[in-house]
Amino acid sequence: MSTLQRFRLLIGLCVGILAASCVHAQGLAPSVGGHMSFNLDDVSGGLHGGVDIVDLDLDIRADFSARFGNKRVLVPIDGQDNAFYQYRESRYLLGLELEKRITVTEIGDGALFGVTAMLLGGYTFGDFHGTRAKPDAAWTYRARLAPFVWLDNTVILRAGYEYSPYQSPSVPDHRVFLAITICVPE
Questions:
Q1: What whole-number distance in Å separates Cα of residue 186 and Cα of residue 176?
Q2: pLDDT tens-digit profile of 38-72?
Q3: Sign of torsion, CA 21 55 182 149?
Q4: Which domains does the chain have, with CATH numbers?
Q5: Which residues pair with 140 in a beta bridge?
Q6: What does the alpha-carbon distance between residue 85 and residue 87 come to, in Å, rounded to a whole number?
């Protein structure tokens, strides 16, 4: 199965999940937003957009993330432990994300507090600048866990932990993320 076929299959599965969820849901709301994730070695950010199924506290969205600037990475030469190529790498992630929110309590007028879990399946690819060598491109996933605040059924703010194996050499998988999503009410 080619990469394009795998990507089409992933999109088809997510559309199927969305269609099945819509049968049981009363309220749908389009949502758009942005996010940023970082650790001591790397910073990336991106945009997302999708559909919020209000009655199920579920969000399904497309996501695009990119590394800010280039990151110096070391790639072993032919499997050696002590010899490396050094590259300046750009890295991108394109995928579909599913978010489930669990509301814990209401705080103030119309604000909700709770926890959220997110899982993204997608394709990561990149570029080594100044050379013909290409970094590994691969199917990957990203998992996030965070508290959230939902203000006035419109703005969702999140900050928490992210596990994101970007398939990039010498970049840790554990990150902190910040995200904001705007839901257009019904």
A1: 32
A2: 998 889 999 999 998 888 889 999 999 999 888 88
A3: negative
A4: 3-183 (2.40.160.20)
A5: 122
A6: 7
